[in-house]
Amino acid sequence: MKIWNWIENKFSKHFSIGPVTFYGANAMHWAINVQTRRWGYVCFRLPLPCFGKWWPLYLYFSPNATPWASTFMIGGYRDDAKLAPMRRRYFGHNFNTELHRDALRYLNSRG
Question: Which of 1, 21, 42, 79 would give a disulfide with 16, using CB separation of 3.0 to 4.6 Å?
């Protein structure tokens, strides 16, 4: 397990190559975000342990790379996944979260 601790310490930051950002052993728990024009950010977690435990896998599309604005979601947390189809219906993919901030907050609070 010492080798895994070394890997987590060595790769605890993130780096970007063009529209792709790789997150290591940090708060994102080994995730990848890809920025697209059509869907906003396509975000998913790699199946690797982080901080000594396994975290839920997810795949979501979000205009601002956050689950609370996702318009498509598999895995992750139940409330965000349940509300994703409603957000897509009302706002579409890659919507402007600042322009629809109040409506998005209202919709998320009703979940």
Answer: 21
In the chain, DSSP assigns E strands to 14-17, 20-23, 31-36, 40-45, 58-62, 72-75
Alpha-carbon distances, residue 100 vs 21, 26, 40, 62, 107 (angstroms): 26, 30, 15, 14, 10
**What pLDDT is attached to residue 79?**
81
Name the strand (E) or helix (H) holding 82: helix 78-91
Task: Give percent above pLDDT 90 in the chain.
Answer: 63
Predicted local distance difference test score (pLDDT) of residue 32: 94
Q: Fill in the DSSP letter of residue 87.
A: H
Angle separating helix axes 101-109 and 78-91, nearest 10 degrees: 140
| Domains contained in the chain, number | 1
Whether residue 5 is predicted with pLDDT greater than 80 in this model: the reply is: no
The distance between the two most distant Cα atoms of the chain, rounded to a whole number of Å, is 48
Instruction: Provide the domain limits for residue 61.
Output: 2-109
